[in-house]
TrEMBL record:
Membrane-spanning residues: 12-33, 74-96, 108-126
Superkingdom of origin: Bacteria
Protein name: DUF2752 domain-containing protein
Key words, A-Z: Membrane, Transmembrane, Transmembrane helix
Species of provenance: Flavobacterium chungangense
Length: 131
């Protein structure tokens, strides 16, 4: 019974990693194509200073980062490089963990993944959530 439960947990963990990876790839894909598509949506941040709306320009900045235009990305949003790196590293980690998940202690792997992701999230989004 113990083996069945851990096998089920392992497969569930792998599925969650795949879902996260797909979501991150969708964010990158959307950001890359965003200059070519327009939904004519207005931002609630329009006209507000960056101090009140720290996420303003993140999509445009991500688009520039994917085109390796880092200077223009920073002009759109000064926090964009850190936030983009969070998503990029999480994407790499999701793929890597799905490969090595059977080679290690599963409980330790999940705990390490959760702690790493939480700490890296706090580091990457610290400037966006705190005034």
């Amino acid at each position: 019974m113990k083996q069945i439960k851990s096998s089920y947990e392992l497969e569930s963990y792998k599925k969650i990693n795949i879902i996260f990876a797909l979501l991150i790839m969708f964010i990158f894909f959307y950001s890359y194509l965003s200059p070519y598509i327009s939904f004519r949506l207005s931002s609630s941040c329009h006209g507000l200073p960056q101090t009140y709306c720290k996420s303003r320009g993140l999509t445009r900045a991500f688009s520039q980062i994917l085109r390796l235009n880092f200077e223009k990305a920073i002009l759109f949003n000064v926090y964009s490089i850190k936030v983009f790196l969070f998503f990029l590293i999480q994407l790499i980690v999701r793929f890597f963990l799905n490969v090595i998940v059977k080679l290690s202690n599963f409980k330790l792997l999940i705990f390490s993944d959760a702690i790493f992701s939480l700490l890296f999230f706090l580091f990457s989004f610290y400037d966006l959530v705190l005034i």
